[in-house]
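ok so I'm stuck.
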Amino acid sequence: RGLLRGAPGGGPEGAMLLHCCCVSEAPGETPWREISPKPSVLTVAEGADFDATECPTFCLELKAEEARGDLFGTLLFNDGEVLEVLAVRDGTVVAAYNESAPTEWRLQPGDFVLETNDIAGDPTRMLAEWRDQSRVMCTVCRPRRFTVAIRRCGALGIAVVHGHPTKGSTLVVDQIGQGAVAEWNAANPDRAIHPLDRIVVVNGRSGTPSVLKEALLTSGSVVTLTLARGPKL
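replied:
not stuck anymore, here's the structure
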């Protein structure tokens, strides 16, 4: 999936289902538009079925006077399927957009960019649009969260990667091998952990990827993970 190539810089059919002409050029129109329920931090209740297709999704438009190669003031991570927002810098185009947008439609770390300028399923080309264009129209997903509690007597059996050690607030599940996570998945297929899921909380600890890694390494016999997952692409 090319996770490691995604240094900071939906399947095509699934993502295109979310495509809409979401921003009007008419005077007074706002540069955002809701597609599905209002974005917020949504956590699936313990024991409930997890359906990532219910992720809140919205469109936004960003404009700059000229293309400056600064990704409109964001730090983005290419995970091979989508772009994850790792950070938003102050005093930038995105920061100005966020000041004008309703809270639930602001672009924030942890959001997934599913489509950019009619390009979906190719995050390398999407990233080039953010870098090289002065205007981007994007479909953004705020991933749903779910929590699992895994008992283990040995290794968890997962490999994780991240886009930046001190920016962002997630670890990306890269591979799942033999261990407690694989055993959990076999016993709980409706709440299984998948590659490209984001780990956002470990035993109550959240923070940068470095903080999350430390929490994983120092976890005991029970590991409680809160994960985020976007729509299946």
